[in-house]
Amino acid sequence: MKSLPDEKLLSLFQAGNVDAFEEIYHRYSGPLVNFMVRMLNDQQRAEDIFQDIFIKLLEQPNIYQNRARFKIWVYRVAVNRCLNEIRNRKKRNVKPQQVTEALQMNQKASNSQFSQIELKIEIQQAVKLIPFEQQTVLILKYYHKLTYPEISQIIKCPVGTIKSRMHYAIQNLRELLIQE
Q1: CATH topology for 1-97?
Q2: What predicted TM-score, i.e. pTM, was given to this entire model?
Q3: Does the pLDDT at position 106 exceed 60?
Q4: N or C: which end of the chain has fewer CB within 10 A?
């Protein structure tokens, strides 16, 4: 089953094959949770949302209607859920967790390793300071290696808008990192 495309697995699942659901679940558990962790800066909340998405898919197999590739559909759902979570945080005035785990785990690292870890943390923190639309495009492109057309389908806006957001995201990141 590992070699089957997502859409075929979903068709099998919708026909009652639970193994197909398990394969699609495991195929996306790493990348989708990773994406949401980067968006929310909260591992536990990202895992909870991932579980919610797949529980809903399990309970309502026909929620995915094969109008877009499954990858596009599931990332679109994840983006929307992250956006809702961020809006809810602002209403509750909840601050996302600070990214310091890498520094704590690597205190004994050499100076060059420490500098690389510090730079990664600075970049992750700077990404959190740019607008949500720019964050989303940047993370989907550079961390998840999606193409501009795929991102366009996920976010439901033209490729030109995606490229513009990417341009401004990189420009904003440069400015933030130079200030530090």
Answers
A1: Rna Polymerase Sigma Factor; Chain: A (1.10.1740)
A2: 0.71
A3: no
A4: C
